[in-house]
Amino acid sequence: MSLKLKNRALVIGIVLLLWLGYLFSFSKVSEVRKQYHLLVKEQVFVSNVSQKLMFLKRQNAVYDSILASKKITSESSFQNTLLKTITVIADSSALKIISFNKPYIFKTENSIISTYSFSLQGSFSKTAELIYHLEQQSKLGEVISVQYRKKKNYRHNFYFLECTIFLQRVDSY
User: Does residue 122 come out as left (phi exceeding 0), alpha (psi in the -120 to 50 range) or beta?
Assistant: First the structure.
């Protein structure tokens, strides 16, 4: 064997050994290193959880104080829930919400009586379904008055039914 052939065989052998070394050990070391870095990141995240929790509690207290200073109570959230329920039912049953008035609130010694009024336009059967859903299924309150009016649209020359509903809710404290 000549010297040139021996050098080529040596270079090919070294390259082959490096490739086999990578396959059996270096690749596994790089995978373990990646897992190590992921675990370090997770440990940093877990160690910051208590600090984040305290921050969120302080932020919640700040938001509660802002709501209290602006006098936004759970009553307004009930009003939003009521409006959302009416909107969902009205959209699904071809009713049109004409007005949603500010609630009338009456306070007694041990309860708060809230009366919500809203007006709808649509058929009698669809408004009756809405009233049933509000009073019986979702139990949002008691319907104390329903007023139907037949009106005429003079521009398009057709009649439509307008319904005004008064819903009362009693909260005791």
Answer: left
Q: What are the structure tokens assigned to 14, written together? A: 């070294």
Q: What's the pTM?
A: 0.56
Apex 143 CA angle, 123 and 103, nearest 5: 100
Per residue in 19-56, pLDDT (tens digit) is: 887 777 767 777 888 999 999 988 888 888 888 888 98
Domain ranges of the chain: 24-72, 74-172
Tokens at 111, concatenated: 């309860």
Q: Residues with Cβ < 8 Å from 57, sequence gap 6 or more?
A: none
CATH class of 74-172: alpha beta
| Tokens linked to 89 | 């039912």
Q: Are 162 and 148 in contact (CB under 8 A)?
A: yes
What is the greatest pairwise CA distance in the chain? 113
